[in-house]
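User: Here's a chain of 262 residues. Predict its fold as C-alpha cells.
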Amino acid sequence: MEETIKKSINEIDTNFKKFRISEALMITYKLFWDDFSGWYLEIIKPEYQKPIDKKTFDATVSIFEKLMKVIHPFMPFITEEIWQMLLPREIGDSIMISSMPDNRKFNKEIIAGFESAKETVSAIRTVRKNKDIPNKEKMELLILADETKYDTQFISMINKLCNLSDILFVAEKQEGTASFMIGITEYYVPLTGKLDVESEIVKIQEDLNYNIGFLANVMKKLDNERFVKNAPANVLELERKKKSDAESKIKSLEEALKSLKK
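Assistant: Prediction complete.
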C-alpha cells in the first residue's frame, strides 16, 4: 500500500502542475476507494472473531493518516477532524501545515506484482461466479510456470482472498479445468464434474477472437513505417511487448480450444 500511495502522489502532483484538477481528484478517489478500502482492508482483515494484531493496526493507522493528507486539498474540514483524532496531537498542530507523504521513489516491480495479483484474484472470483462454486468451498489453483521464476510475493494474498486449498505449479496444460491468463502466464482451476464444455468453448472462442483483433491493431502500428520511425523508443518497446503477449495468448487459447474439441 505504501508503494501505491507514493505512485499515486506522483501522478497527483503531475496533474496539479498541469492544472488537471479533475484528473488529480479521480486518482485520489481511486487510491482511497479502490486500493485502500477495496483491497488493502480486505487483505488485512483478520479471521472471523479474531482481533487484528498490533503491528498491522499501527501500520494501517499510519497509512490512513497519509491518505488524509492526500485527500485534504479536496476535503479540508473532514480530513482535519479525522487527522486530529487518529493520534495524539500537540496544541497548534494541523494537517494543513504537516508534510505530505514522501513520493520521491516507488518500487515499480512491487506495483506491477500487486496489479497482477489483483487480476488473478478477480479472475478466480469470476470462475467461481460462472461455475456456481460457493465462496466457502475451497479450490485448487494450478499455475503453468516455473516456480523458481514466478513472482511469489503475493501468493499468500491470492490464497487468502480466494479461499484456496492449494496453489501448485505445473509443467503442462491441464484438462478438465477452467483456465485464464494473466499477462502471459496461464492459470487453471480444476472443475471435476463441473465443466460445461460447450460454454467453455464459446468463452474461449470469444477471447480468441478478441486477441486476434487486438493483435491486428498492434500490427497496423508496427507495419507503419512512419510510426516506427517517429515513435519514441519506449512506445515502440511497449507495442512490441503487446505483440508478443497477444501472440502467446492466441497460441494458448488455440491449444485450449483444440483440447476441448477432441
